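User: Sequence recovery, please. Input:
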């Protein structure tokens, strides 16, 4: 059989081959359509537009105390927190525009107020937070602090602007008792500053209504003292709040006198130098010792140019041979019980020689006037020579304890 008559591939085979070629050719663009020029599959985030993401959660701001809160305690902090974002601005202001100080934490998600709020005051809170959504969240709210139903007013001695002696204690007397468990908190808010030279000192509680302060040694002469009573936001007893006061006074010259009861003399020093020695008469013996002048460190409490002295105030009636009712000149009080330094012209012959008084320190009118003119409240008078001691609290008796003993009365050293 000639070659031209050799049978070729069947039509069915050719068709199958053509179909296969066509299918192969069609497969190439189909694969290429699922690839970019780099050959990285789409949907991996490279070379293709990302699919739309769901919307980010906006920041949520929370303020404590909550909006419109009333009767908020002044010692309660204001906190502003944010979820799903960071705080970009926080302001808390009183009606007069005074801002409340505060601090933002390192994460930028919590702001906390610093210091106490004012009593009976409405505050506005404004906070702004930013988050992933790109739209800032603003929060505004209000809170109002409580108005006290009761307060404890602190009366202070010495008064502001006074010049006093180196032995004058700071005496704070409350018109409402301080609870025992609040004494420490009260002390922490009583501050005494001495300039130009700072000196150590301590408070000591004398009762539930009185606390006194003294330095370790006498105040430095010619110094300035500032007393900051920062109790306006302190609850001194359940439901009772304190008050805030500032007192400034001056320490004058160091007038320190010594009375030798046995030698009948009064020696006066100013800034360490003896300036005068005065003959005196002190309390007589007998009568059960009730007229003996007390030994101890006393402090001048008041100066009176004239004073009526009546023994009935000390329990001595008119039928007693020791009764007296006399007006004295230039009286300097040193005890609550009635000891004074004063003019006693009726006993000049005994002054410097014998003790004939009812407990006071008597001297001539001339010497008494000199003492009156040269003394001030807070000057120190040290009495020695009798076996009758000064009772605690019978006057300004803070110097009759060691400093360590004095500190035992402090809630901060208990």
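Assistant: Recovered sequence (414 residues):
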């Amino acid at each position: 059989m000639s070659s031209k008559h050799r049978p070729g591939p069947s039509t069915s085979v050719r068709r199958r081959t053509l179909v296969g070629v066509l299918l192969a050719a069609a497969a190439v663009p189909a694969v290429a359509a699922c690839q970019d020029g780099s050959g990285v599959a789409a949907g991996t985030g490279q070379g293709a537009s990302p699919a739309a993401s769901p919307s980010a959660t906006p920041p949520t701001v929370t303020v404590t105390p909550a909006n419109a809160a009333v009767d908020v305690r002044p010692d309660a902090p204001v906190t502003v927190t944010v979820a799903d974002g960071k705080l970009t601005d926080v302001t808390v202001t009183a009606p007069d525009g005074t801002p409340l100080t505060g601090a933002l934490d390192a994460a930028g998600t919590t702001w906390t107020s610093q210091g106490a709020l004012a009593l009976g005051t409405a505050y506005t809170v404004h906070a702004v937070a930013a988050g992933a959504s790109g739209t800032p969240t603003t929060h505004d709210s209000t809170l109002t602090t409580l108005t006290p139903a009761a307060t404890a007013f602190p009366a202070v001695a010495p008064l502001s602007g006074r010049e006093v002696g180196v032995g004058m204690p700071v005496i704070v007397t409350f018109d409402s008792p301080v609870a025992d468990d609040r004494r420490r908190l009260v002390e922490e808010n009583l501050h005494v500053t001495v300039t130009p030279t700072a000196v150590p000192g301590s408070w000591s509680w004398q009762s539930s209504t009185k606390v006194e302060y003294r330095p370790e040694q006498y105040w430095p002469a010619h110094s300035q003292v500032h007393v900051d009573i920062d109790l306006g936001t302190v609850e001194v007893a359940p439901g009772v709040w304190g008050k805030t006061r500032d007192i400034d006074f001056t320490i004058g010259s160091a007038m320190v006198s010594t009375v030798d009861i046995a030698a009948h003399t009064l020696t006066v020093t100013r800034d360490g130098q003896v300036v005068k020695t005065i003959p005196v008469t002190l309390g007589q013996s007998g009568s059960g010792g009730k007229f003996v002048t007390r030994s101890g460190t006393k402090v001048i409490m008041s100066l009176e140019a004239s004073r009526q002295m009546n023994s009935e105030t000390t329990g001595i009636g008119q039928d007693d041979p020791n009764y007296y009712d006399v007006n004295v000149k230039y009286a300097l009080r040193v005890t609550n019980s009635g000891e004074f330094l004063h003019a006693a012209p009726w006993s000049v012959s005994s002054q410097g020689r014998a003790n004939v008084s009812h407990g006071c320190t008597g001297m001539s009118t001339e010497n008494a006037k000199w003492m009156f003119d040269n003394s001030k409240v807070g000057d120190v008078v040290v009495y020695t020579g009798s076996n009758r001691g000064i009772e605690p609290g019978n006057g300004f008796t803070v110097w009759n304890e060691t400093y360590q003993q004095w500190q035992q009365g402090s809630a901060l050293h208990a």
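The mean pLDDT is 88.
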